[in-house]
Amino acid sequence: MKPEREFVAERVVARHCAQLLRPGPSQADLVTALTRTAERFSRELAGALAGLLGGEEPSVECSRPERTVYSDYATMQVMGHRNLGAYTLFGAGPGQHRILGMVAGEAVLRLVDRAFGGAGIAPQQLPRELPLSAELMVQRLEAMLAGRLAAALGADDAGAIRPLRREGNIDHLAPFGNDENIVALVFSITEPGRPAWAIEMAFPYDTLAALFANGERPPASSEHAAADPRDQPFADVPLPLSAVLVDIRLPLAAISALEVGQILPVPVARAVPLRVAGQTIAHGTVGAVDDRLAVQLSQVF
Questions:
Q1: pTM of the prediction?
Q2: Is residue 139 part of a domain?
Q3: Cα 274 to chain center, whole Å?
Q4: Which of 162, 168, 283, 289 could connect to 271 by a Cys-Cys bridge, CB 3.0–4.6 Å?
Q5: How far is the C-alpha of 14 from the C-alpha of 32, rounded, in Å?
Q6: Same domain for 277 and 179?
Q7: Together in a domain, 34 and 158
Q8: pLDDT, tens digit, for every residue of 163-220?
């Protein structure tokens, strides 16, 4: 059967864009990006831990990334007698991409003991579950890890990473599939004269692909621009300004003998200090304007 007319495409035939077909980052690229982020996270973590540990920054060192399968990682947790711990599943970004954070139960109990004024000693026989007294400490650790990791990743929103779920046993949490490939990191924390402890984190490759899909971002700056006193709401704040015309010292005996009508000779300084809340902000010389005493500024700090 011969068609009466030739078929003609109604639209231009689609052509594939080379940029769209370009492969994403390889697993090796993702691990490299995670390694650099982990170095920044170590520095962020040291500063954040200072407030938790009494004001002095501890030493935080990150291990080399370990590529493994989740089932093997979970088995090592149990074999290392660390099945008791604070295991938290974090969600990153709108897609809630999974990240596992872990602090051993013994380390949590040491931190709790320090928070209550103790020497940081954990009981020799660890309990089967973390006590309720450790709940607040674990929450502080979770908030610190989420915020500092978000900063290390260069996230604009400090809440870009949030804790989703927590268990005291890694088997109960089941954050990843048994056959899922992950990258694990260990952040070793040491202080002089105290036992070392660690914070561990694990990332599946799909999370790394989401975090570094557009390349690495520089860490968010923690510096804030200084407030301009000419801007609201600061501009209208009233502050008392005092000009110290006379500042003399008299012995207590002379002050106790003062009488009405007595004349005290006082020297007026050439440079009169102007003060706000006791802080000298400028110097000036005494003069007169429109029959009123005035101070002409000669130096402003």
A1: 0.64
A2: yes
A3: 39
A4: 283
A5: 36
A6: no
A7: yes
A8: 999 998 888 899 999 999 999 999 999 988 889 999 999 999 999 999 987 765 555 5
